[in-house]
Amino acid sequence: MSAARPVQPPPRPGGPHSVRGSPVSVALPLPTRGAPSPGRDIPTDSPTDSPTDTHCPYCSFQCGITLVAGSRPATLQPQEDFPTNRGGLCSKGWNATELLDHPDRLLTPLVRAVPGDRSSALRPATWDEALGRVVDGITASQQRYGRDSIGVFGGGGLTNEKAYSLGKFARVALRTAMIDYNGRFCMSSSATAGNKAFGVDRGMPFPVSDIGETAAILLVGANPADTMPPAMQWFDAGRAAGAQHIVVDPRRTSTAQGASVHLRPTPGTDLALANGLLHLAIREGYVDQAYIDARTTGFAAVRAGVRSFWPDRVERITGIAVDDLRRTVQILAEAPSAMILTARGAEQHSNGTDTAQAFINLALALGLPGKPFSGYGTITGQGNGQGGREHGQKADQLPGYRRLDDPAARAHVAAVWGIDPAELPRPGKSAFEMLDAIGTPDGVRVLMVMASNLVVSAPDANRVADRLAALDLLVVSDIFLSETAARADVVLPTAQWAEEEGTMTNFEGRVIHRRQALPPPAGVLDDLQLMIELARRLDRGQYFSADPRTVFDELRRASAGGIADYAGISYERIDAEQGVFWPCPTDEHPGTPRMFLERFPTPDGRARFIRVEHRDPAEMPDADYPFALTTGRLLTQYQSGTQTRRNNARMVPDPCVQLHPDLARGQGIGAGDIVEVRTRRGAARFRAQLDDGIRRDTVFVPFHWGGASNANTLTLAALDPYSRMPEFKVCAAALERVGDSDDTHLLQQVPERPVAVTARRPTRPPSTAARVRSPSRPQSTSPITSSTSKGSRMHTKNRFLQGIYAFTGQGIDKPAVLHADLTYLVPDGSVAQALYFRGGNTSDELVVAVLMRDGVPMRYFPIGAKSDVHIPLRVVEDMEGGTAVELYLAAPDGVSGTVVLDLGLVEV
Questions:
Q1: N or C of the chain: less Cβ packing under 10 Å?
Q2: CA dist 374 to 83, 189, 282, 452, Å?
Q3: Domain 627-633+650-748, architecture per CATH
Q4: What is the pLDDT of residues 326-368, one digit of tens each?
């Protein structure tokens, strides 16, 4: 594939995706100031009204803004010349200044009135008292239960300096293995897949401006028009120049509305879609064999693995029409340049790593990574979701994206930290596993939470809340009293985005400078100060600094030679160059805006194809919970809503459930009604929002609310085996209308947890019976063989067991051979699958056709009296070479008639 044609620079942002206007000024009362902070002295007088160039506190696009905060209310403007947002800003960013003086702001530490009794009230405390309780709890727990009885839970919104220091704090000050962070719930699957395939995890291995230059984009499980609106200027510019965009999403989102093709798969089937697209690319001769031979390994195994993902099967699994599959492949393969971009919709599954890998396989087969304006990327969600996963917050990681179990990495980082490598703990538990182990013999007994709201953001939130209640001590550092902080024993107020200095790494891998515009209120510590104060009380203060520039210089040394190498990045370079892309190993290195141009950072320099197989979600809809539930974000809200619910509530006043009008009609639900959504784990209430752009079998709920509308009380904690990502994006749900549009009070009443219902299993009829008598000769025999279309690169053959047969039944529970011709033996070396069953019955009674595999019933096909059926086989199984496939028939004793049978199979 050749490079894309150049396009004109994107127009200045405007329209629906990027809001422009006057500086936002919202008059709010100044919060009462608290007691002075310990540690270094912080001026409490406001700076002058000089503008400060900094960055928005929300998503990973990290829009450049200019803030004036010397007098209140603070004002901001988007930076016209910052290379990512170029003057764009969404509603969340425009309202970010409201957080600075919000009346709900925490300004003093809080502790329980009765230590150890969480039913007692939280009361104000001095820093000495609050930190004393924390240190006493840590010391007592470690003396009795060991070092790993202390857990640390970080966040993807922390600056690089704070994320780095938090990992160091856990391992050097607390000397515990138990640290992880909320990015495990966000980006971990694509990160794991990127490391496996490319040898590196950088969300976008090219700058965002390349999106405006590429000729085709496949966007899977992403809705940047709502979650990252200023980025849409680049998508819009590409479309204006003729680019074709394909969006994969079960909902017709704002992003999907502008796409050339919108694919709406059944939730949980993205991997099958990716394998099916690769099957077609191979079959139609679209793969870039020269690229595969020169730059990759493992293609043969992947090619064999997708042989069985023929278009009809993929249509049955995903619900996407074959014609749309073909059109998608054609657009990607025939474009002079193309990108495949995934996000949480594809990744937050129990097979999320394999799903991301499947799309990487497709990108590699088309020869995209490393070519101009082409490649695979993942759209990171949290503000520092990229940097936050590079420098040690993860359970198995050291700075620079080094592995904690690598002796060389341990030696390097230990030398920078001034400790013996033997002092470093080994890898600990992943995020949900750490939470779920609380209350068990090997679980943590003290948990410190920083920049996370677990009670709202974790899966199976009721279960997590129960686990948190079993802790001896829960410590939360936050700017507001979140749902998690409200359950804590000690709450520590912290500085927020405009009150601290540090660096962030946006989703492109661009390291940027978040400048301090004003000091935090008196009585509030920033997180670096908090960590050093605790470290001092634990006699480990000599290893830490509260100065972000000093911390960043140490981070540079710790990351040197690692995958995410920041050694050549400095605050001065960031300011001069409007950000620096890693890896940047030396001061002279220009940084790396575009990766993989010559080689991949693997030992042999090649990218890796990895064979992956589709499997159903951990929980499928059934009679008790008949709908597929998926979760996501709204334009006006962010993450668990701790910040945005306080300043954007007027834009989306009530939490909502989105469902198709036909589904709503069948459940007796009208627009605006109060609906209770139930799963096997919990129940939550929402206001009904009807939208004919969502699949009829799917309901969508945003996860920004707690209390009665906590979407994550519904979600499932099935974990990906590689990334340990929970399955947020699909589970089985039921709906019930509980009130009309005026019953807003019901949204404040937390529903009772439903009693779990065991999934019903059909009983299997006996497989042994007398032969059904067939007095007449069938009018056609089988199997009938038909080759696939000429020019196919994968050799498949259609097989049919079909004909018209007279029968006399021996009992509906006695399926037996109908005719010897209804038998097919799968050839050695081949694989077969059943695609569909059609049948007709002339008798006055129900009959049942039975698909047998090696004499054992595999599927049952009931055919009603004087009726016919057509059954696409969505759930299919491979039948290996040597398998005997037969059709039996069961009919009531003595009943005679004629059946028409047609079983379609494909042989590969």
A1: C
A2: 19, 21, 19, 35
A3: Beta Barrel (2.40)
A4: 999 999 999 999 999 999 889 989 999 999 999 999 999 999 9
